[in-house]
């Protein structure tokens, strides 16, 4: 009789421990948008087809070893990353908004070609973010023998569910790829060939995985305002223009309907020193078009006045993009221009560090 009571108590304790463990497990929402990571080969046709993520635990049994509870939300129709645009960014942001208080972290599976754009756009749209939003993808499909998809997915889930004293370690939009965790709005894709496809040239790595999974807590972002809200405003009235030696301004789309010109210039901010250039830039500014100057160099920053051929930007009141990436500059401009949720002028907000995207003095 005594042994029976002891056995019942042991069983009750095990049930209690299991319930506590389940409560402690962090809940992560995996959002599958499309891309190579979600593909597998159809061996009958030899072509790639979307993978059914409802069967992901059968495909990657290692997921069962992670101390997180995984839920899956897929786009109705997977989108190639080259088709990603404002509508899809807004959809992802809305999904996170609807599920924000039901999950501890979010993992977005995305094609690699435009992942930096999506990460940058989300960083501006998700205000007061204090939970991890991690994006990852792969260079090879999940079903390939040599795929990088499994490691990227598994470690991304680790970072998306990483908490310390019930406080999320990552509280920003980040990209995890090939052993590196990077701030999303500081990244660029620099290789279509190597597994190590992303760089963050003007900001340190947030974390790195090896034998141990490390985090550099000194460089992590913390929200200035923890009141989470989503601002879906994005404008298409942004033009990106890269100058080149011998460029003729007659081919510039002068009559196009845009409000912001992201002008990618040489080095630390130089452009052709001729009357046609000055005349064109002054005409644009007289129309009320904002001109943001960024560099063609991967690292470093814009410095007006360093060379004589940059003085025109001071004269016309151009916006100094400093060390912001092209991807981040474009999406930041899309978010800021004509956005009724900001009460300060565009140029003042663009040069303000909103979510770690730009270095300021």
From TrEMBL:
Positions of the Asparaginase/glutaminase C-terminal domain: 238-350
Single Gene Ontology MF annotation: asparaginase activity
Superkingdom to which the source organism belongs: Bacteria
Pfam families referenced in this protein's UniProt entry, alphabetically: Asparaginase (PF00710), Asparaginase_C (PF17763)
CDD domains according to UniProt: L-asparaginase_I
Entry binding sites for substrate: 81, 112-113
Residue stretches making up the L-asparaginase N-terminal domain: 27-218
InterPro entries found in the cross-reference section: Asp/glu_Ase-like_sf (IPR036152), Asparaginase/glutaminase-like (IPR006034), Asparaginase/glutaminase_AS2 (IPR027475), Asparaginase_C (IPR040919), L-asparaginase_C (IPR027473), L-asparaginase_I (IPR041725), L-asparaginase_N (IPR027474), L-asparaginase_N_sf (IPR037152)
SUPFAM superfamilies xrefs: Glutaminase/Asparaginase
Catalytic residue list: 36, 112
SMART domains with a match to the protein in the record: Asparaginase
PANTHER family to which the protein is assigned, alphabetical: 60 KDA LYSOPHOSPHOLIPASE, L-ASPARAGINASE
Official protein name in the record: L-asparaginase
Organism: Riemerella columbipharyngis
